[in-house]
Each structure stands twice: as structure tokens, then as C-alpha cells.
Amino acid sequence: MIGLTNTYSQEVSFGVKAGVNFSDITGDDTASFSGLTAFHIGVVSEIMISETFAFQPELLYSAQGSDWKDDFEGETFEGTVKLSYLNIPLMAKYYVAEGFSLEVGPQLGLLLSAKDEYDSTEDDIKDDLKGLDFGVNFGLGYKLDNGLNFGARYNLGLTDGNDNPDSLGDSSYKNSVIQVSVGYFF
Prior knowledge:
CATH class: Mainly Beta
Strand order of the largest sheet: 1-2-3-4-5-7-8-9
Low-confidence stretches: 1-9
Radius of gyration: 19 Å
Strand content: over 45%
Number of strands: 9
Number of domains: 1
CATH topology: Porin
């Protein structure tokens, strides 16, 4: 038992990562949305299952949302929907070459805050959106021997975020995020 514990403990790495988000809100009635550049930061762990396969759970703070611009009765209105999530991606990694991996896995997101900013005004819209967001991630990664690593990932939101049809109508709203990251495994 002690020998197995030592073997597995050598196969687990912990680290940190941060990067840029290119997010948007997709779905019905989203023609006025144009995307938002934000950030993510968090902790990761890589658990090697074999020489080529690993499991990578993460805990990330992720700023997401979209800028918007809408014309109504001859006037143009502009604003930003700012969403903050605590995301938990559970990634399966397959190393196709030395240091280079393909990644796929589900992601659960907990909505921390949601604001709609426009005309120097900020409305809290968290009660209008669902508190849990489910999506699936697809990505690429590259890890150097010294622990420095790089990644690019696409998160396809599967959950309709509209939790208040009386206020938001029958439209569906889903998260769509491209992430570019830099990280370090200790």
C-alpha cells in the first residue's frame, strides 16, 4: 500500500493557470451581442493515468459575458453584460506527442454575479439567469519539462441561461468562450 501511494503521488502535479477569455452569449435574439474580452485564473491538477493519458480537474474564476448594441426607435443603446463564474472543468488529456495534448471534458459553472452595464448604470441581473451552467470543453495543450504550459480551449455552453422568461422573453442564452492560458505545474 505504501509503495502504491508513493507511485501515484509522483504521478500527480499541482499548478496554477491564467489567461484571456474571448466570450460571447449565443442563442435566440443575440444579434445585438458582439463578444467580450475578459480573463480567467485558477488552480489545476494533472493526474497521470498512463504515459499518454491524464485527468486534469481545475477550479477557475472566469469573467465572461458580451458587449451589446441595440437600436430602438431611432436611438442606439450600448452596454456590457458581465458574468462571473466559478468553473470546474474536468478534462481528459491525451498526449499525442512529447508535451502536446488534446483535451476534452465537461464543465460545471456556478454563477457568482451577473451585471448589465449601460449609460453609467449597472443592473444586477443574477436573479434572471440560472445559477448553474453546464458545458463541454475542447482544447489543445503543450507542457514543457520545466512545468510551464500553454493551452487553448473552447467552451461550448449547453445550458439555457434564461431563468426569467417574464423579463427576458422566451429567448435562450448560452455561454460561448475561447480561452488562451499560460500555466505552471510545481
